[in-house]
Amino acid sequence: MENKIQTVQTLLDALPYIQKFRDDIIVIKYGGAAQTSQELKEKFAKDVVLLQLVGMKPVIVHGGGKSITNLLNELNIPTTFIDGQRVTSKEVMRIAEMVLSGEVNKDIVSLLNFQGGKAIGISGKDANFMQAVAKDETKFGYTGIIKQINPDIVHKILNDGFIPVIAPIASGASLSHPGYNINADLAASKIAVALKARKILFLTDTPGVLDKEKNLIQTLTIEQTQKLKEDGTISGGMVPKVDACIEALKGGVKKAHIIDGRVPHSLLLEILTSSGIGTCISL
Amino acid sequence: MENKIQTVQTLLDALPYIQKFRDDIIVIKYGGAAQTSQELKEKFAKDVVLLQLVGMKPVIVHGGGKSITNLLNELNIPTTFIDGQRVTSKEVMRIAEMVLSGEVNKDIVSLLNFQGGKAIGISGKDANFMQAVAKDETKFGYTGIIKQINPDIVHKILNDGFIPVIAPIASGASLSHPGYNINADLAASKIAVALKARKILFLTDTPGVLDKEKNLIQTLTIEQTQKLKEDGTISGGMVPKVDACIEALKGGVKKAHIIDGRVPHSLLLEILTSSGIGTCISL
Amino acid sequence: MENKIQTVQTLLDALPYIQKFRDDIIVIKYGGAAQTSQELKEKFAKDVVLLQLVGMKPVIVHGGGKSITNLLNELNIPTTFIDGQRVTSKEVMRIAEMVLSGEVNKDIVSLLNFQGGKAIGISGKDANFMQAVAKDETKFGYTGIIKQINPDIVHKILNDGFIPVIAPIASGASLSHPGYNINADLAASKIAVALKARKILFLTDTPGVLDKEKNLIQTLTIEQTQKLKEDGTISGGMVPKVDACIEALKGGVKKAHIIDGRVPHSLLLEILTSSGIGTCISL
Amino acid sequence: MENKIQTVQTLLDALPYIQKFRDDIIVIKYGGAAQTSQELKEKFAKDVVLLQLVGMKPVIVHGGGKSITNLLNELNIPTTFIDGQRVTSKEVMRIAEMVLSGEVNKDIVSLLNFQGGKAIGISGKDANFMQAVAKDETKFGYTGIIKQINPDIVHKILNDGFIPVIAPIASGASLSHPGYNINADLAASKIAVALKARKILFLTDTPGVLDKEKNLIQTLTIEQTQKLKEDGTISGGMVPKVDACIEALKGGVKKAHIIDGRVPHSLLLEILTSSGIGTCISL
Amino acid sequence: MENKIQTVQTLLDALPYIQKFRDDIIVIKYGGAAQTSQELKEKFAKDVVLLQLVGMKPVIVHGGGKSITNLLNELNIPTTFIDGQRVTSKEVMRIAEMVLSGEVNKDIVSLLNFQGGKAIGISGKDANFMQAVAKDETKFGYTGIIKQINPDIVHKILNDGFIPVIAPIASGASLSHPGYNINADLAASKIAVALKARKILFLTDTPGVLDKEKNLIQTLTIEQTQKLKEDGTISGGMVPKVDACIEALKGGVKKAHIIDGRVPHSLLLEILTSSGIGTCISL
Amino acid sequence: MENKIQTVQTLLDALPYIQKFRDDIIVIKYGGAAQTSQELKEKFAKDVVLLQLVGMKPVIVHGGGKSITNLLNELNIPTTFIDGQRVTSKEVMRIAEMVLSGEVNKDIVSLLNFQGGKAIGISGKDANFMQAVAKDETKFGYTGIIKQINPDIVHKILNDGFIPVIAPIASGASLSHPGYNINADLAASKIAVALKARKILFLTDTPGVLDKEKNLIQTLTIEQTQKLKEDGTISGGMVPKVDACIEALKGGVKKAHIIDGRVPHSLLLEILTSSGIGTCISL
To answer: Of A214, A219, C68, F218, whose CB has the highest number of CB atoms within 10 Å?
Structure first.
């Protein structure tokens, strides 16, 4: 019986969070280990379905870099990176779109559906959801930066009761254009702003932002974050993550979280428990 | 961290129940210790608010016999019982209505509101919700049995997002009639049928239906229940409870539960965990 | 036939008033003789139902001081008044709430329902409709003044086609707080403002505001009213009535009426005939 | 004051009728003296507007034989009648339509609008509301009998809050066809059936159906009515009226009334007072 | 096959226009030859029905001067014109209304219905759609200029899926007033402004605005138009047309077209083809 | 001018078809040359957008066999066919899904969007739209036949104003299952039945069903079609096409068309012109 009482107490501890985020849009950048381990994938899907069930409106934005590289390798298509950004030739673009929109996206959709959700996968080409321009055409080819988002379609999908799953592919300016490959972190950030999301969460393969002693920093302001970038505490792959957070916050999102996707159910832990498990950045 | 993982696991265990009962009406007969202990009262209110938050439609039906007796005593009005049923003189009826509609009902409404719910208290007189006739006028006076229920008002309250709290008072046939005092268990049962509720729960001061060895019986069919009545295993105050359960089930309610209101959060335990804590009767 | 023609003429004379107040909220402070005489009660109820039927939205706010005093006397609980305001001890508060929410309120609800209306009785505790603070805790105890009104619930009740009947009880700041007893005239005034009512009517036991010669004054501006207060023409129990009128008018209500509840159907006479029967105060 | 009390009593006497016919469609065949006397016209309009204001849905169907004859005379176009039915040549049809749809119809629309109603005049040609075929082409020309009614447009007009005023002109089978002139009594009857009206009233220049002693018969069944026709008590111009009543009743209309349009406000007298003033026929 | 390909190409050429004007209100002043030739009438009706079918909201405003003159002549009622404007005596007004509302209006309604549309004919008297005052009572009698338009009824007709056909008759200030006869060009212009129409088209018996060499001018600005008036290029009957155009444009209508109603399907040619066939005036 | 008149006549000839199919769902199986020639692709997209614009609800179902084979070849994955059906190994399934959902589907979506439509691409996995079982697992691997369709999502997409573009991939029975590859003709047929489509069209690389003399047969009944299959007139690749037609017709679709996708705008020619260009099969 003691055990059962514990069970119920847990549910009740989540009550204030459920009340707080009811009907709010929560954008989740899905990636890293949480996307590759079969066990973590299923747990992630359960979390998303539960968030929707208790009244939130989760929106999933995913990447898929490793899967793209795998298929490029199978096809012997060379792939290069400059400053950590993929150079997207026309050939690479074709493969990137197929993998992101046709394999990774549908895989996540199935994951959610098999947990009792009703997910719909789209890319930025559907209903012309995202338009992009080249970041630097001569240097990066079809790697794009988002120019415009028409949030209408995602609002309709949400209002119809579905969970949108978004592949970071954007349409170009003409029909003959193959479209653009977008950095998934930045796509998530822009989408959160366009949807007036309350919260954005980035699932990563680190515990969050760490201080010089490698201890987790639980909360940060934008200002503090920028200082940590300047003094080098935040460096490497964490820089684009916090930049995406700051962009979302400046666009009106209330809180941006960097959490450890390797921890099972990190999503629920961060949203529905008092302490959370990662780093939360706010204005 | 282990502790947190446990937390999340608990939430996820509740997921299938939340999915199953989404948008379903759940009638809860509130009474006994759960209505007198301040601590149990608050826990009960938290449970109801959480049930609503995760998508169910709880409807509270309450009694209040002890409070009626207390005020009658303060007023030196004699009160008698025949076969466990109160004899309701005109004087008693006036007091019963005041206590039920004006004290107990509003107390529960406040309880729910202070936990973040939005409750509205009504009696069977509001919008002519319940009409009754005398059970046996010469013997019991204004103790009534329900003749008709107009569920429309409760559906509207539910659809407006409120939690209805119902005092078991019904209107009589004429304006000069003081109305009827209704047994709360039977009122709950009739209301559950009229609302096409999926589930009805009775909060009692016992663990549930017990076998001859005083061990809890977790599940029963109507047929089994009737046998236990015949062989005397079910006796005393449990008889009208199971009768109310059977009436609800025969009217189309899927499951009727008799649970221990003395156990904190027994409501959530019964609805959102796999084993439950009381007795569940079904067809 | 002449008689019948007369009949129809009367109906037609009411036509412009029916057109004028269509869909308007009309707050009616119900009290005095109209609330105690059985005959006047039924006539009042008929009036309210007819007003709703021809398209207005009546809202009833009632007092019940005499009934409270009666029950306090039966219980030998002493009750005292300072400056005409009841001192509300915790014991008195419990009784006041029971009488107002559980007896008087349901009595009015039944009255309206038996005339073909569909009334719902609430107090300020339902859906947290009214919150109050103490007027002067050491002096008056739980006698409160309204701090906030959430008109949402009453709008929903009106839009669902019901007649709201409101007991002047407000919730306090904590769960353990017994709530507040509110002066019904002031409650009516505040409710009219919060609901953006077009008209407020006070049923009293006088013909209206009288001049020095004790003749009825049919119309007054706020300014004129204040002068009559200053020169003592308006005095005694009429002062709080006109103050409640002025507060409503300053809050945006178009017209405030003080009418004679002892006159059968005074409500209809005031709203649907050209001359009216009481005093009408406007900006 | 006595006078005012009388006033209110009258309003209250109408209350049960207002409750009874709320939201019901009431078809009124307008004609005779009520259509020619300026005073009676305005009173008729007031009645209709009041009926709508208190929640009914009046639909006006009008004739206009005299106005047609007048214009035909001014134009020296010969007009003949066989068995009381106008022979409608092509030339007569053109004039009949102009007078009915362009003069009489708009005159009634203006009448209603100037009393505060919002009326819309249509003929059976609008939105193809009524299609007819010839009654007997060689004998009566373009005098038609209704073949089909599409009630959709009138329901839309009613739901938009307007009072429909219908001229008894129907469309023919081809574009070159001038349309048909329909007997207004029969049109009213068919329209009442098509709209599932609750009541139909015929304003005539007689007190109603009279017995052999020329006394008004207040109520009749279809069977009794048919006997009175057979024994000659009902004769002459009253025969087509009662036939139209019977057709409406057989089509599902609950009550059909023949009332004296020469009596001011006969419409209100019949619908909103207990005794009525004319003859009411029912199944 | 070549022929069929041509067919499809034509449909596709219309595609951008259909997209552009989707859901837009298009006011069409119908008159001249297009209203008298049976062949042109049917083609006009087909055009209007097709415009509605592909998503536009056509509103027809018609005149009918010739038909009025004809009936006046048949009745030997003298009719005079001052500056091209009819002097409308009370007798003339009665005939004008009958002809416009009862003959011409219903004729157009039938035309549209027989092509598969659902048209409803109204005049400015219906639902008090247009109120007017006298232009110059001593000089022109009941010839009016529009004072106010209540566009509500036409929006409701459009939203119900019907095509409104409007006779240029307006109501006067009192019930005894016969109403006003309005110049149809000006009525169309005012109606277009009141409805926030995107486009207004005038069907005339000329190719459009002609230059000094009698060649068609395809596009004009308001400024250019006013210069052509000043230098006499635009003169005679074209002056009131361009004035009506300018009034509509100044009131917010985007484009005003003067087109040749003698050309079959001139309406479709102007709206759905690139070059158009008449003169288009814009800001 | 003659040319322009011709233009308009063409539009008007399409009018009856536009009226007839308004609000009807039209399923289009897209494939063959129409999917490979850049010129034909754009023309197809224009056709679909125009059909939607004039009020129909087009639904596109596409195949993509050649693109799958191409990528398999690039990857040196062997691909075999038995009886014209691809044997779908797990490796082939992964590639088929990527190509269909991620390349071909998004290519069609972009095509439609760049013509002014708003298309959304989904596969049978989205919102669990299509579930399949293996056709013959040992023989064909993951080649599936449709077991169930949940049309809800497509109805929502249509009602939101989008054009659904569907890849013929279905979900399997478990999360680890890679899903099924479905024959696009059969998918189109089943989808048309599930959506209660009025019409289904198959774009092929032949003129339609040909008789023994290789002349096009314009109309066929199911019975005639089956006879032609039996006597060998219909053979080879045409057999599965007519079988898909027959299945759709038996499921309630009114007409099934086999048309020549190599003819520009064959879609519009078939739907909006009188003669059509291919073979139309009906009950």
So the answer is: C68
Distance CA B127, CA B122 (A): 9
Pairing assessment for the beta strands B119-123 and B163-167 based on DSSP bridges? parallel
pLDDT digits (tens, 9 = 90+) for C194-248: 999 999 999 999 999 999 999 999 999 999 999 999 999 999 889 999 999 999 9
Chain D partners within 8 Å of C46 (Cβ):
12, 15
Taking CA atoms, what residue in D is nearest to E173? Answer: D114
Other C-beta atoms closer than 10 Å to the C-beta of B84 total: 10
Give residue B267's identity as a one-letter amino acid code: L
Distance, CA of F64 to chain centre: 11
Q: Which of F1, F53, F269 sits opposite E54 (nearest CB)?
A: F53
CA distance D272 to chain C (A): 8
- Domains of chain B by range and CATH? 24-282 (3.40.1160.10)
Name the minimum distance, in Å, from the CA of C128 to any CA of chain B.
Answer: 7
Residue in B4, B50, B54 nearest the CB of A269? B4
Q: Do chains E and D touch (3 or more CB pairs under 8 A)?
A: yes
Asked if A1 and B263 come within 8 Å (Cβ–Cβ), the reply is yes
> Which residues of chain B lie closer than 8 angstroms to A18, CB-CB?
50, 53-54
Helices (H), chain C: 2-21, 38-53, 65-74, 90-97, 105-114, 137-140, 152-159, 184-194, 222-230, 238-250, 266-272
Query: Taking CB atoms and an 8 Å limit, are B121 and C122 in contact across chains?
Result: yes
Whether residues E53 and F55 touch (CB distance < 8 A) is answered with: yes
pLDDT, tens digit, 9 for 90 and up, residues A233-274:
999 889 999 999 999 999 999 999 999 999 888 898 889 887
Phi/psi at C124 (nearest 5 deg)?
-65, -10
Question: Cα E10 to the chain's mean position, in Å?
Answer: 27
Contacts of A8 in chain B (CB under 8 A): 47, 264-265, 268-269, 272-273
Amino acid at E25: I
Chain D positions in Cβ-Cβ contact with residue C50 (cut-off 8 Å): 11-12, 15, 18
Q: How far is F11 from chain E (nearest CA, A)?
A: 6
Task: Identify the CA nearest to B128 among candidates C166, C112, C127, C157.
Answer: C112
Q: Which residues of F are less than 8 Å from A94 in CB distance? A: 103
Shortest distance, CA D4 to any CA of chain C (angstroms): 7
* Contact criterion met (CB below 8 Å) for E96 and E123: no
Which residues touch F6 (CB under 8 Å, ≥6 apart)? Answer: E10
Cross-chain residue pair B123–C113, CB shorter than 8 Å: no
Q: Which of C71, C102, C120 sits opposite B100 (nearest CB)?
A: C102
For A216, counting Cβ atoms within 10 Å of its Cβ (0-12 exposed, 13-18 middle, 19+ buried), the class is middle
Q: How far is CA C52 from the centre of its chain?
A: 16
Give the CA-trace dihedral at F96, F100, F102, F106, to 10 degrees: 170
Distance, CA of E272 to CA of F5 (rounded, Å): 12
Give the ipTM of the model, two decimals please: 0.93
Residue B32, C-beta contacts closer than 8 angstroms, at least 6 positions apart: B203, B204, B205, B261, B262
* CA A200 from centroid of its chain's CA atoms: 8
Amino acid E10: pLDDT: 74
pLDDT tens sequence across D96-151? 999 999 999 999 999 999 999 999 999 999 999 999 999 999 999 999 999 999 99
